[in-house]
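notes to self, project folder thing:

trying the whole complex as one job this time. last attempt i did each chain seperately and stitching them together was a nightmare. two parts in total, labels are on each line so i dont mix them up again. if this works i'll redo the older ones the same way
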Amino acid sequence: MKNGEIIAVGSEILLGQITNTNAKFISEHLAKIGINVYYHTVVGDNPNRLLNAVKVAETRADLIIFTGGLGPTKDDLTKETLANHLGVNLEYDEKALRSIENFFAKRNQPMTENNKKQALIFSGSQCLPNDTGMAPGMFLTKNNRTYILLPGPPSEMQPMFTTYAIPEILKGIENVEQIESRVLRFYGIGESKLEVELEDLIDTQTNPTIAPLAVDGEVTVRITAKHALDDERKHLLDETEEKILVRVGKYLYGYNETTIVNEMGKLLQQKNLTLAVAESLTGGLFQEEVTSIAGCSKWFKGGIVSYAPEVKINNLGVKKETIENHGVVSEECAKEMAENVRKLMDTDFGLSFTGVAGPGSLEGKEPGTVYIGVSVKNKPTKGYYVNLFGNRESVRVRSVKHGAWLVYNALREID
Amino acid sequence: MKNGEIIAVGSEILLGQITNTNAKFISEHLAKIGINVYYHTVVGDNPNRLLNAVKVAETRADLIIFTGGLGPTKDDLTKETLANHLGVNLEYDEKALRSIENFFAKRNQPMTENNKKQALIFSGSQCLPNDTGMAPGMFLTKNNRTYILLPGPPSEMQPMFTTYAIPEILKGIENVEQIESRVLRFYGIGESKLEVELEDLIDTQTNPTIAPLAVDGEVTVRITAKHALDDERKHLLDETEEKILVRVGKYLYGYNETTIVNEMGKLLQQKNLTLAVAESLTGGLFQEEVTSIAGCSKWFKGGIVSYAPEVKINNLGVKKETIENHGVVSEECAKEMAENVRKLMDTDFGLSFTGVAGPGSLEGKEPGTVYIGVSVKNKPTKGYYVNLFGNRESVRVRSVKHGAWLVYNALREID
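result (full assembly):
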């Protein structure tokens, strides 16, 4: 099993209503396990054209992965078209059927026939459970080719692919040169500055390769090594990482798919400290990111979204004079917000955000003007000014990262 | 010229490093001018596989649009491969060549030979100028087929396609049947229930077509009409919409790219009413969505993220007995949260969320168990129980939608 093709089924993609992000996700994961993808195809909800796409793919690939067309409606026909083409029967997967029945039973809703149909899988195939939806996927090897069928919604496809399909694929291959990447995440250093620091490494290195990338105020460096042996790959990555960190290690906050908020949370938990937050321009974005982390209740207590000035005064206890003299977009206001929310919620850390997200200016200050307050128990409260780049959304996202970075650094200073 | 296929050339797409957003952009624009796109293909920077993709496309399309592979480097070979296949010569486009020369002269840099090569276009083709980069595109009709070559970077491809390629395409078709879509957005009805309600319409309708889609707890219905005349298309859409709304109109909340939170905000602003929010399991997600709307300060004052039980008691004034007797995951707690946050922030509406986002259960209640409180000034506060489906993220997203839907409905009842 070496040559892959990904076929996305869905007229909505051909109409330009949605982007085929599934192909990217699958390709990325196949690259990591050394499987070449030579073609992506997108075809609509039409059995003849789908059949045409399958026949073309069979001339050039031995691993064909389908996304979409497994749902309950009439235009979902990937399974039926393929069963017909391959000459296999459809049979109910008992487990999948029970899970669909449970779904409706729980909601006291009757299960219609078209929903039941989702539990049909190819006879002789491996069922790939759907942990986040109803339609199961399947894995079938026939005529020396492997066919994998996955649902279309990314929230169902992604966990099914990584949890159930990848292990099945790996069973069929051995001793391939695998690709392994490690992403180092930096904050507080610009992309061009980082690139200058690492220039000679980037230019001379071939295995691993080193690729910097800037996204929303932070910079990542992807190190990618190629080797058949796990230990050797790891060794190559370690060696290169060390060379990089000697130069820019103080800006490193984490590895791979983490976030600054996540790393801040880990440190709070390690040190057994708690946090409360007061948000104005970020309007709940910081706390939303915090509470998307399961288990955050160990270190996060809550906060106040003080969008209106009167909420800052009445509910957060910011002094009226502070706002009259300095405005809500000020270091003074940020400091009172941080200190007061910490006291109100009885935590070790208080963090606050106030500023101008845009599109309009506020109190004569331009969008991107942001003040962040950090209050630590038994220490003087600090206020920070930052000027952030981008539109409303971007300013909010960058504010959240900067706030987390400030708390993260304050935490590193505490034993 | 009726059947389109889009071929994106670039190994970085097959490696999953970038998403093929070009195909979406082009498809969307072709749909508007009535051209059917039946396939998307992605192929790497390899002449043999590219040639294979072209040959396949020629069996099923008479408009083939290429993106990528027009740049100066060695792996840019779309132009050469195609010239060879079609038996056409490459010749310099004088205007494009001068524009590239100017680019380097302006920067005081020498122009290398490989950069010059970018100005080569097919003999007999129309040159499509590149206003935002160097490599021009081209438009060639040969053997009753049209070939359009566009650069890969979206910042170059998009303006070239809309400014120069679309007018060329339109010259080749008259009295074009254009496609127009309208999306109706529903909440509170499942996809299969909605499909049953509309089944005969969906089955018998051909123009407009009717396509339901379920995403994260809501259902959309896309009506797509085809007609050469603007008025007629609008009439077709209106007529079908009316038929649909007679049956399921009470679940409609908006059209096209809006959200329930957005529609709720519009109603609050229209009626000159204000909102405050108390969030537990949603942890700021509702308020984050609210404050991503520019101008929300007219109707949104703020809120409290009461993640820890003691914040519910100390900062939000939920009675200790309520939590002892009913737990935090209860209708009683939700009602007190909604009413108290409304009073604390002196608003007309108070909305609250408490429940189990998962992955673990809480107070013996399963993930997906959610209570929402809605408090309206001078009315009895109401509590609602919902059982929501999905993982932690999905439960939170669906909670937010459900809360906004409840406020939206309460607002519709107010004159």
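what i see at first glance: The longest strand of chain A covers residues 178-187.
need to look closer tmrw
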